[in-house]
Amino acid sequence: MQEITWKIGDIKITQVIELEAGEIIQEVIPDATKENIKKIPWLKPHFADDEGHLKAVVQSFVIETPDRVIIVDTCIGNGKSRTDIPKWGNLQTEFLTRLQSKGYPRERIDAVLCTHLHFDHVGWNTILQADKWVPTFPQARYLFAEEEFKYWHGKPAAEIADDHAGFADSVLPIFEAGLVDLIPVDHSISNEISLIPTPGHTPAHVSILIKSRGEQAVITGDAAHHPCQFARPQWHTAADTNKDQARTSRLALLERFADTPTLIIGSHFSIPTGGRVRRENGAFRFVV
Asked: Considering the domain 5-287, what is its CATH architecture?
């Protein structure tokens, strides 16, 4: 897959894909059956095939401003034991090599920003060295919403084992190393980058707003897992902590940016990944 770079004013956003994930994302959205997907014809060819199989990925985005480099979400990571989704366990990918090939060696990352703390968004926060999970990006501060961190630190019984394991091996070691900044859900990281609260998928999930020279983009996080949820905003995912709140957040995000020039970049959207939201038939369409 040919990964994409976007320019938003003075800011560069670079896509780094870890792996394809269409089958698992389809399983996570119960209403996204092959029959239902075939009823949304504009999903083809980029986001679904003729048989109704979804196309999706797990990926990160590097945001380079004139004075800092931020990586948004860090995928699944290598060598991490996962039992609920074993296909995503004990991976051995070339993610860091590809990141470096795009001009971003580990030491160049100034900040790591996680939209939420599910295990497929935090995995490369740490790597294994001498049987110990240590920070992957040694020069970076790691930015987590304070409410989100406290929720997972409390070991909520309703959540799956893989997310607890992800917190243990990919978040707690960062906190114990003193590299975490706990921030509010409406935090402004810089003049160009700020958070949009989009709770529901997790209690303090956020999306990322990027502005520069009159242009803007939004990285959705898991406020929408797939463009099919634009056409069917009521479709929840099995991983939503609060399904009604997640739907409300998704609708608010779509309403805010529909029929505007804002570039929407979906955190699990397959290439071309970025596009605009348009109102259509009482719902929304993703236009690339």
From this structure: 4-Layer Sandwich (3.60)
